[in-house]
């Protein structure tokens, strides 16, 4: 008998069996990934150790950002109302303040933030921490400008990040 010839009693997959096997091979890893994505907790950003207040500086309203940590903050980005942005590559040493006039915040098309025509309802700050992780501070309120003028907002009083 020829060695290459197949034994008629040997089990073989039918087209349906092969299709089911391939479906299981493809769907099983996908279903495991979806299960892990749904069941594992989401990683939130680290809290940013800062204090923010709004005050009048040189007859203009300005955001005053104070680094409450011992280490420096780098690559500081601030967003007002999720539309007006400010970015600084300069490091902010621990315990120091940075003052940014509200007119320095601009949209992508260059339009500056004007408190007379825009209501401040949201402010977000992100920066690189000393351990190279990203820190985030976020605050939302309908009366945010008045709240920040009345008293500085500290990290413990802000809304939790990871909405």
Short description:
By secondary structure, the chain is α+β, with helices and mostly antiparallel strands. The protein is built from 2 helices and 8 strands.
Overview of this protein structure:
By secondary structure, this protein is an alpha+beta fold. It has 2 helices and 8 strands. Strand 2 and strand 3 (60-67) form a beta hairpin. The model is unreliable at 156-163 (pLDDT under 50).
Features:
single chain; 163 residues; alpha+beta; 5-stranded mixed beta sheet; 3-stranded antiparallel beta sheet; 8 strands; 20% helix; 30% strand; disordered C terminus
Task: Please describe the topology of this protein.
Layout: H1 15-39, E1 46-47, E2 50-57, E3 60-67, E4 74-80, E5 84-88, E6 97-101, E7 122-128, E8 134-140, H2 144-150
Parallel strand pairs: 1-8
Antiparallel strand pairs: 2-3, 3-6, 4-5, 4-7, 7-8
The radius of gyration computed from the alpha-carbon positions, rounded to a whole number of angstroms, is 28 Å
| Uncertain ranges | 156-163
Q: Order of SSEs, N→C?
A: HEEEEEEEEH
**Terminal CA distance:** 72 Å
Major sheet details: 5 strands, mixed
Helix content: 10-25%
Quaternary organization: single chain
Read across the widest sheet, the strand sequence of neighbours is 1-8-7-4-5
The portion of residues forming beta strands comes to 25-35%
What general form does the structure show? elongated
Helix/sheet category:
alpha+beta
Number of helices: 2
Number of strands: 8
What is the mean predicted local confidence, pLDDT? 85
């Amino acid at each position: 008998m020829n060695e290459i010839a197949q034994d008629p009693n040997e089990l073989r997959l039918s087209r349906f069996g092969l299709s089911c096997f391939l479906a299981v091979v493809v769907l099983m890893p996908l279903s495991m990934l979806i299960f892990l994505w749904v069941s594992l907790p989401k990683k939130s950003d680290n809290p940013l150790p800062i204090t923010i207040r709004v005050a009048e500086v040189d007859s203009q309203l300005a955001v005053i950002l104070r680094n409450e940590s011992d280490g420096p903050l780098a690559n500081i980005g601030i967003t007002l109302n999720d539309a007006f942005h400010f970015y600084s590559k300069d490091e902010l040493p621990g315990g120091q303040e940075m003052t940014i006039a509200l007119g320095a915040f601009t949209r992508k098309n260059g339009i500056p933030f004007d408190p007379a025509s825009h209501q401040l309802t949201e402010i977000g700050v992100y920066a690189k921490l000393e351990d190279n992780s990203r820190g985030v501070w976020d605050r939302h309120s309908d009366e945010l400008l008045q709240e920040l003028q009345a008293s500085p907002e500290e990290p413990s009083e802000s809304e939790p990040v990871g909405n």
